[in-house]
Amino acid sequence: MAAENQFVLTLSCRDTKGIVFAVSGLLYQAGCNIIDSQQFGDLDGDDATGLFFMRVHFEAPAQLADVQTLDRLFAHTREQHQMDVRFHAVSRRPRLLLMVSQHGHCLNDLLFRWKSGQLPVEIPAIVSNHSTFAGLADSYGIPFVHLPLVGGSSAETKRAQEREVEAIIDRERIDLVVLARYMQILSPEFCEVLRGRAINIHHSFLPSFKGARPYFQAHARGVKLIGATAHYVTADLDEGPIIEQDVERVDHTLSAEDFTAVGRDIECRVLARAVRWHVERRVLLNGHKSVVFR
């Protein structure tokens, strides 16, 4: 099946009858072949948003095989149901900007997955506030941009550095920013620029063990489960919509260093899943939550 003619449609709108029929019927009438379709209505519970979400992977005939044509095809249906509809060409690889500080496990894992063909993306650049992983970036043939921030930098200095990152995002046409253990708090302005297109990873001890050496803090308290959380970046620190989480059991026989090793392994797995699901257009924002079609 030719990837050049394959697309993913994602949509959200108020939940009502007939949406699946309208979408699938229009695709059928246009000569498209639906490969996979998933939907979810958020209707139950006090926190329900009342929204309907849908992801359709389909193959289009040659005369319709571009995003602009498909978008025009859905103009009436979009207006009728007040939909947020987006089309994504499967053949187009999303462009990622990776950001890292001084812990390189997630960066190295993502680079390996990309190089080995497990992660179908392009990585035009790696940005860091330290020079630690310049050699790693060079070994993969990816430009490394060092934008230093010294301890205690003012808000103005940090914002100036963020604007340099924004310039890279614009110049390289970046689709997704991945904070692969980038240990800087982003300004509200930068978070707004990155709304819905930046993913962060951290341990799942929050809010219990904040700050430096959280795995050592957890070891000292006899923690029995270690986890990690990947979420979208918002101005509310580490409280953005969650994409993926995982845990692993630990016990008293493990050292604090063992805790750290287990935690870093989970962080790599969780971040890789979150990034993959995002680039495959499987994640749709639902207020403070997310819908993930696996």
TrEMBL record:
InterPro entries named among the record's database cross-references: ACT-like_dom_sf, ACT_dom, Formyl-FH4-Hydrolase_C, Formyl_transf_N, Formyl_transf_N_sf, PurU, PurU_ACT
EC numbers: 3.5.1.10
A GO term, aspect molecular function: formyltetrahydrofolate deformylase activity
ACT domain segment(s): 8-95
Uppermost EC category: hydrolase
Catalytic reaction(s) noted: (6R)-10-formyltetrahydrofolate + H2O = (6S)-5,6,7,8-tetrahydrofolate + formate + H(+)
Keyword check for Hydrolase: yes
Pathway where it operates: Purine metabolism; IMP biosynthesis via de novo pathway; formate from 10-formyl-5,6,7,8-tetrahydrofolate: step 1/1
SUPFAM superfamilies, A to Z: ACT-like, Formyltransferase
GO terms under biological process: 'de novo' IMP biosynthetic process; one-carbon metabolic process
Catalytic site: D238
Family that this chain belongs to: Belongs to the PurU family.
Listed HAMAP family: PurU
NCBIfam families xref list: PRK06027.1, PurU
Functional summary from the UniProt entry: Catalyzes the hydrolysis of 10-formyltetrahydrofolate (formyl-FH4) to formate and tetrahydrofolate (FH4).
Protein name, as recorded: Formyltetrahydrofolate deformylase
